[in-house]
Design goal:
Blueprint: H1 3-13, H2 18-25, H3 29-36, H4 44-54, H5 58-63, H6 71-78, E1 105-108, H7 113-119, H8 123-126, E2 131-132, E3 143-147, E4 161-166, E5 177-183, E6 187-196, E7 201-205, E8 214-217, E9 221-231, H9 243-267
Parallel strand pairs: 1-3
Antiparallel strand pairs: 1-2, 3-4, 4-9, 5-6, 5-9, 6-7, 7-8
Helix pairs in contact: 2-3
Length: about 270
């Protein structure tokens, strides 16, 4: 339980003394000191009072080590962002900072994607990921870069590096915008999104018309990142080709592959 260290950290971030906080929440200074030094444990009334004063959920005060999360996350918590979404698990982002305490951009490569699906919330896993900085991105926001695979988001090519901005409140997800979504079953998914959070799901669309839309239930989502930009060594495909022609080209390629397989079988 991290309650004692958390309230001390939050108090010092506000440059408040124990007398200041105790007076504001209506308790004795010695009582607050006892909580901070783990001499005594708070009752529910004390938890509710301190939660309201610091504008941080009770579950977060108790279960999350706030000293391990980045400055951006702490600022978001202190500004009143609810880290819960209709009773879901606490969503606190594991992150890293550079020597000047600026948030890094962590890189999740194709090889690291499987490990990220299980280690996304583990600070020890996150800190071994490669990191870099992009000077044209805001230092007030959190970014992470993921390498994507496949052709479902053409003209963004296969193996591109896609950077996303961390989304705290999923109600802020905008329709017809691209997002990187970490899911329990499908891992990292990069799609254009329809926001149906109030109905309990997100609807995912590919840019490539050959792929059908699908839905992801909210309880299977772990993280959401808003698309910012991508980096690729490949030139985008020509999008002036009509969709009908794209479909015909794909069908012709499939026919060619089938003929090659039949030829091999006949030779055997």
């Amino acid at each position: 339980m991290y309650f004692s260290t958390n309230i001390k950290l939050l108090r010092k971030r506000r440059s408040k003394t124990q007398d200041d906080v105790a007076f504001a929440v209506g308790m004795k200074r010695s009582t607050l000191s006892g909580y901070e030094n783990e001499i005594s444990e708070p009752n529910i009334e004390a938890l509710m009072s301190l939660s309201k004063y610091f504008n941080v959920a009770i579950d977060t005060l108790i279960k999350v080590d706030l000293s391990k999360i980045g400055e951006i996350q702490l600022n978001q918590l202190e500004r009143g962002y609810d880290v819960h979404l209709k009773g879901s698990n606490i969503r606190v982002l594991a992150t890293t900072v550079d020597s000047r305490n600026n948030e890094n951009i962590e890189l999740v490569t194709e090889k690291a994607k499987a490990g990220y699906t299980t280690g996304y919330a583990d600070p020890e896993y996150i800190k071994v990921l490669p990191t870099f900085q992009l000077p044209f991105l805001s230092r007030e926001r959190k970014y992470r870069t993921f390498q994507i695979s496949g052709d479902s988001m053409l003209p963004i090519p296969d193996k591109s590096y896609v950077t996303g901005e961390y989304v705290v409140d999923w109600h802020d997800i905008r329709d017809k915008q691209a997002y990187i979504v970490l899911t329990m079953d499908d891992g990292i998914v990069f799609k254009v999104v329809e926001n149906h959070i109030d109905q309990g799901f997100l609807k995912m669309h590919s840019l490539n018309p050959l792929y059908s839309p699908f839905e992801i239930p909210v309880n299977e989502i772990k993280e959401v990142w808003k698309f910012v930009h991508y980096i690729s060594s490949q030139m985008p495909e020509n999008q002036n080709i009509p969709r009908e022609q794209q479909l015909l080209d794909t069908i012709n390629e499939l026919k060619k592959e089938v003929k090659e397989i039949q030829l091999k079988l006949n030779l055997n």
